[in-house]
Design a protein that fits this description.
Layout lengths: L2 H24 L2 H6 L1 H17 L13 E3 L13 E3 L5 H20 L3 H4 L2 E3 L8 E3 H27 L16
Antiparallel strand pairs: 1-2, 3-4
Helix pairs in contact: 1-4, 1-6, 3-4, 3-6
Protein name: DinB family protein
Organism: Pedobacter agri
Pfam family, one: DinB_2
Length: about 180
């Protein structure tokens, strides 16, 4: 795979991750602990960034544990069915995100033409994801950016706090 394409892909996926890191790290500690919606979005986006970066999803082994729960068992602020087993600190989530950021960078810069032909395949059920590697990386970027934007909106609405935009990986977060 052409190195310039890898750089472009990393610049944009990395920028999405940087924006997620930036919005969470810019969140005041008391708000992070008291605004359950913010917390659950931060947790969800972190877990799924890691999951979608695990090329064989069957090998997914998250650093922060969770339990899959039925709708009736979920907190109303939860995003989806993966509920954290405990309330993780902002620092724990940020540390995990930084590790995933490095994982994504390694994946992208080690891509070969053969690896692009591999698939991110969850299983054989009709709704299971079955995407080429390039597509799951782009999907992961969109998913991460979507939730970073939600977190930005919450901070803007609730605290009138503006968070910086990242044009490329590394321009707002030290590499």
């Amino acid at each position: 795979m052409d190195h310039s394409i890898k750089e472009i892909l990393w610049n944009q996926l990395g920028a999405s991750i940087d924006m997620l890191l930036n919005v969470i790290s810019s969140c005041p500690d008391d708000y992070f602990l008291t605004n359950k919606r913010f917390y659950f979005i931060a947790f969800h986006s972190t877990i799924f960034l890691d999951y979608y970066s695990t090329i064989s999803p069957q090998d997914f082994s998250p650093l922060l544990s969770f339990t899959q729960k039925e709708l009736s068992e979920r907190p109303k602020e939860a995003i989806g069915d993966l509920i954290p087993d405990e309330i993780y600190s902002k620092e724990e989530i940020l540390k995990y995100l930084k590790q995933i950021r490095e994982k994504c960078k390694r994946i992208i810069f080690s891509l070969t033409a053969d690896e692009l032909n591999k698939r991110f395949k969850e299983g054989d059920q009709p709704d299971d994801m079955d995407y080429p590697i390039l597509e799951i990386l782009l999907y992961n970027m969109r998913h991460t950016q979507h939730h970073a934007a939600q977190l930005n909106m919450l901070l803007r609405q609730d605290l009138d706090k503006h968070i910086e935009w990242s044009f490329r990986a590394g321009d707002i977060i030290d590499e």
